[in-house]
Specification:
This protein is an all-alpha fold. Among the domains are: 117 residues, Tetratricopeptide repeat domain (Serine Threonine Protein Phosphatase 5, Tetratricopeptide repeat); 77 residues, no CATH class; 25 residues. It has twelve helices and no strands.
Length: 331
């Protein structure tokens, strides 16, 4: 009996030792990952965070930082997937870690950013609203929400114009004389193709759809296109050329063909990590919504606040009804 008890005690001590060793390994790997992250070595940071998760799959810090490292590498879809997993399983992390609604708000904020960079504006708006439910006073989320709403309106207008153009082409096609012979049709098709080719030649290319012409983003040597953030992705294919978390379409200003240069230093804002030369990196400053006046931005924010008040009022009314029903049943 004494021998059995001794074995049990040894087993428990060994289990505690292993658990402590795993925790130390996890913390060490996360610290190393953070060091890589702060040096902008995001791929190495990603590897470390994955190692930490292998040691402890319930580590909020490792999972959250993994999402951030993926975002920094412009792996926006993968980052979105990670932040979605954290949000859906948030209760699991709160069991072992001291987390709050503010932490969940940060997860939704970063999810919104990941969707915004993929031009999934409607989904990013939902994510930002979820973030504001947990932290209504986060101004950065409010501004990003306003920017996403603006881009969604632009996207819907473009789609509408495209659809209207498609309908017009369809009507023209139906109005054609069906009795035309093959030769006339071929002549017309050849002419159309030439016109389209000519039109395409005159139109400036913009592969990353940020409004800034590829010719501008490639720089003076098109054979070796400029890569401002040295991430292996040239600026003309990169929606955030300086990797400051502010989309190029936003930093380019109202006239993307002549990108804005706030501090007049010869480096346009979309390539300048400190565009106003105030010593504070752009990604640390309060974002400014381009193309929206102060009055419009204020109206948007006031509307959001009213929506939040309406939501709180409805919740209070629902809770009051539930309480009333419960009282009646108990009585």
């Amino acid at each position: 009996m004494l021998f059995k008890m001794k074995n049990i005690v040894l087993f428990i001590l060994f289990a505690f030792f292993i658990s402590d060793l795993v925790a130390q390994t996890e913390r060490k790997v996360i610290r190393e990952g953070n060091e890589f992250y702060n040096k902008n070595e995001f791929a190495k940071a990603e590897t470390n965070y994955i190692k930490a998760l292998n040691a402890n799959e319930n580590s909020f810090e490792a999972k959250y930082n993994l999402g951030n490292s993926l975002y920094k590498q412009k792996k926006y879809a993968q980052a979105d997937s990670i932040f979605s997993q954290i949000a859906s399983e948030f209760g699991k992390y709160t069991e072992n870690e001291d987390l709050s609604k503010t932490d969940l708000a940060k997860v939704y904020h970063n999810k919104g950013n990941s969707l915004l960079m993929q031009k999934q504006y409607a989904q990013s708006i939902k994510a930002y609203k979820e973030a504001l439910k947990r932290n209504p006073n986060d101004e950065k989320t409010r501004y990003n929400l306003a920017y996403a709403q603006k881009k969604l309106v632009e996207q819907q207008k473009q789609q509408q114009q495209k659809n209207e153009g498609g309908d017009e082409n369809s009507e023209n096609k139906n109005d054609k004389d069906k009795d035309k012979d093959k030769e006339k049709k071929d002549d017309k098709n050849n002419k159309d193709n030439k016109d389209k080719k000519s039109e395409g030649d005159n139109k400036e290319e913009d592969q990353d759809s940020d409004g800034i012409p590829d010719k501008t983003e490639k720089g003076n040597n098109p054979s070796k296109p400029r890569d401002t953030d040295k991430d292996g992705k040239p600026d003309f294919q990169d929606q955030d050329a300086d990797n400051d978390d502010v989309p190029d379409s936003q930093e380019a200003g109202e006239n993307p063909k002549n990108p804005k240069d706030t501090d007049k230093d010869g480096v346009p804002d979309y390539r300048d990590t400190d565009s106003d030369n105030d010593g504070v990196p752009d990604n640390k400053e309060k974002p400014v919504v381009q193309g929206i006046s102060k009055e419009d931005a204020k109206r948007i924010l006031e509307a959001l606040e009213n929506d939040e008040k309406d939501l709180q009022k409805k919740l209070k009314e629902q809770n009051a009804k539930k309480a009333k029903v419960k009282t009646e049943k108990d009585w």
